Amino acid sequence: MTPVTSPPRGHGAGEGVSGTPDPAARGRAADPEAERSLQAAFDAAVAADERIEPRDWMPDAYRSTLVRQIAQHAHSEIIGMQPEANWITRAPSLRRKAILMAKVQDEAGHGLYLYGAAETLGTGRDELLDKLHTGRQKYSSIFNYPTLTWADVGAIGWLVDGAAITNQVPLCRCSYGPYARAMVRICKEESFHQRQGYELLLALARGTEAQRAMAQDAVDRWWWPSLMMFGPPDDESAHSAQSMAWKIKRHSNDELRQRFVDICVPQAEALGLTLPDPELRWNEERGHWDFGAIDWQEFREVLKGNGPCNEQRLNQRRAAHENGAWVREAAAAHAAKQAARAAQGAASAPRTARS
Amino acid sequence: MTATAPQALATLPLADDALILSHRLGEWAGHAPVLEEEMALANIALDLLGQARALYAGLAEVLGGEDEIAFLREERAFRNCQLVEQPNGDFAHTMVRQLFFSAYQQPLYARLSPVLPLAAKAASETAYHRDHAEQWTLRLGDGTEESHARTQRAADALWRYTGELFQPVEGLDVAWQELAEEWHADIRDVFGRAGLTVPEGPSEGAWSAGAGRQGLHTEPFGRLLAEMQHLHRSHPGATW
Ligand SMILES: [Fe+2]
Ligand SMILES: [Fe+2]
């Protein structure tokens, strides 16, 4: 991993980002005494559950961890638009069509908040998108599965947005202020999505035989990938320990996965659908649902790029970006011409007055 | 439907326009040139879908529920203008289509607001759509050589679908000629500022049988409906 140079203190949101490092900041970092006291202040703030803000000093590794995590999250939001957008033009009722369009739009909005949060750490959206497009940064593997029927839209809402909420509610208390605040807004909308997905599946489960079968098939396909969304088991998780210490992360992968299973089992029952795991049973002693072994081989394969839709998703994202290049260039050229015209107007005004 | 007085169906063309353009804009989801446009295009699509649903609700007694109207009519029963059914093309094509349409829909709604309950709200929504399309027309017309060329090409290609907009709709008491003049002045103004040329070609197809308002559509429309209606029609009587 390449070390990230800390932008200078005061390098906040909206100012020029990812620019040249401030020489003063470099000088400061070279002074070990000052560095130690800054580190101590940072540690104390994290220990006291205070928020770290963009203008505060933070360790380089904390900054780079956050940028990596927020970027991956932002990428997941915008790639996650694709499997659901796949059904916008085929939604079977106008009400569902409106709900689905609004949901996909929400995900774009989540992407915007999160790229904004990453920008407060000194890394701009263009740079992050470039890393996504060139495969140097990842997005959630769940979106590498296809949406084959309308019921998949419901299963994604119920299970994928549901798992995302379980993962993300603790992030509302994340030590980094802008990320935590973005997550508060996002979680509110994700919980709408989760309820809408559940409600969609409920309508199918109570509908015709064909609709019920469609719902069951979707849940069968999305259940295990949803459990994988919590990441590898705790003993194999590469970044967990340090992130917990920094209070970027508050619960382990396995803890969150268990919480999710415990929430879903009674909901599946209420839907009248089954979960595709013969080993699911209530464990009185643990006070949790036991569940079967996850196929981590599949997880690793999808992560490596061999999932059913990895190429398709990334290709569509790249194509949207490349096909939009002339639009972005035109907007920039127009803005530059406008500025030049305004400057010329201002310069020529006094001359006109004199003549 | 044939026995129904035209008065009762007067708002059907407006509703179909809104539904079909909303559908086309929905096709952009996940393909827009910047994230901000994902938001904006979805916003416009949602506004239009909302307008369509409100107008269909007013037609329920004559035509049935909104899903019946949207998903179970055949192509020839749709009354939308041909402009809104045109495929998206590139971003310039979509924006010029939007400008042409919103610059028509906005003053039309404004004129109907005394008699059509939803029209006042819809007029303010479409004012935003028109403004958004105008801003992009200015950027693209003025921006680069490529963007200028694409935008001019879009205008030239879409021009022939604009004449139909001002064909009187039976049952809508609107000064159509005045609306047309206002529209032309508006487009001339925006195009002038964008450095674009107002097309000179015919603004209507040469086919005397009519156009969208008579239920005669262009070839891409059949495929649009096939996609939109397929799932609903595959499960007769199902609720979603
Ligand atoms: Fe989201
Ligand atoms: Fe969501």
From TrEMBL, chain A:
Keywords: Oxidoreductase. GO terms for molecular function: phenylacetyl-CoA 1,2-epoxidase activity. SUPFAM superfamilies: Ferritin-like. It comes from Streptomyces oryzae. Pfam families: PaaA_PaaC. This is 1,2-phenylacetyl-CoA epoxidase subunit A. Residues 1-36, 329-355 are annotated as: Disordered. The keyword Chaperone does not apply. The keyword Cytoplasm does not apply. Its EC number is 1.14.13.149. Transmembrane segments: none annotated. PANTHER family: 1,2-PHENYLACETYL-COA EPOXIDASE, SUBUNIT A, PHENYLACETIC ACID DEGRADATION PROTEIN PAA.
UniProtKB/TrEMBL annotation, chain B:
It holds the Pfam family PaaA_PaaC. SUPFAM superfamilies: Ferritin-like (SSF47240). InterPro entries: Aromatic_CoA_ox/epox, Ferritin-like, Ferritin-like_SF, PaaA_PaaC, PaaC. It comes from the Bacteria. This is Phenylacetate-CoA oxygenase subunit PaaC. It comes from Streptomyces oryzae. The gene is paaC.
